[in-house]
Amino acid sequence: MSASGGSKAIVAALGANLAIAVAKFVAFAFSGSSSMLAEGVHSVADSGNQALLLLGGKRAKRAATDEHPFGYGRERYVYGFLVSIVLFSVGGLFALYEGYSKIRHPHELDHWYWPVGVLVFAICAEGYSFRTAVHESNELRGQQSWVQFIRRAKAPELPIVLLEDFGALIGLVLALFGVGLTLATGDGVWDGVGTVCIGTLLVVIAVVLGIETKSLLLGEGAGAADVAAIRSAIVDDDVVTGVIHMRTLYLGPEELLVAAKIAVQHDDSATEVARAIDAAEARIRVAVPIARVIYLEPDIQRTGPAAATA
């Protein structure tokens, strides 16, 4: 996986979540806290998320075949979609069910120091993982806001890890809130309330990630800045006089397809047109390096009704 795939952030998150999951289940075993159980399942789900992201990054590197001539780069989007929908939703729905059961049948916490100690440890570990994800994301997002980065990023891994870690930190605070109120009031209902809040948070994050990865699966084109750079690179004001129409499509996070019909002079020779196309392709790759698959079709610029159907 390339650096833009955020492999360091994924590995950091995987290690943190595995350690946290074990600690949470131990705390649940000693205390009976439903918040701890929900958070334990949440951490297991997050660990599965990171394993899927790593697997998707590895499978996306496979060479193109006759059946998949454009390669497997978009497989990273498939695994991102599985993460956002299946595992997050399973974690969220389990937490909602567990919280509802605890509200209906509350009981006091046993050995309260276990859940409190584990939650403090988990907040520190998740904070480190989140810091790593933020650091890697800052190298890519430039002047974009965090919302813009999550919505526009073509590599799904970093946005997923960012939202996972952010959701995990908020979930831990909610769990600490539920456990704390249960200890303060002696009413186990608050533990269930905290668990329901965790489940709601996970489902909301699942919906957000599902929407974003669905858009990538359907196929997104290049951004406005890259489109303008490609158009400018195509035209040489000699043989290639303009772009009649153009389409772009991400074949994967680091591979862009460019297909364009370009306007040439009616009296240019085939040799001149072929050389101009080769030169235009080279200029495109310099202007937008991820534009690796390029198809340029020469045509005579027409005006009037016929041009609209060209």
From TrEMBL:
Protein name in the entry: Cation diffusion facilitator family transporter
InterPro entries per UniProt: Cation_efflux, Cation_efflux_CTD_sf, Cation_efflux_TM, Cation_efflux_TMD_sf, SLC30A9
Subcellular location: Membrane
Keyword set, alphabetical order: Membrane, Transmembrane, Transmembrane helix, Transport
Primary localization class, coarse: membrane
Entry's transmembrane regions: 9-30, 77-97, 160-183, 189-211
Ranges for domain Cation efflux protein transmembrane: 11-218
Pfam family, one: Cation_efflux
Protein's membrane topology: Multi-pass membrane protein
Biological classification of the source: Bacteria, Bacillati, Actinomycetota, Actinomycetes, Kitasatosporales
Organism: Streptacidiphilus alkalitolerans
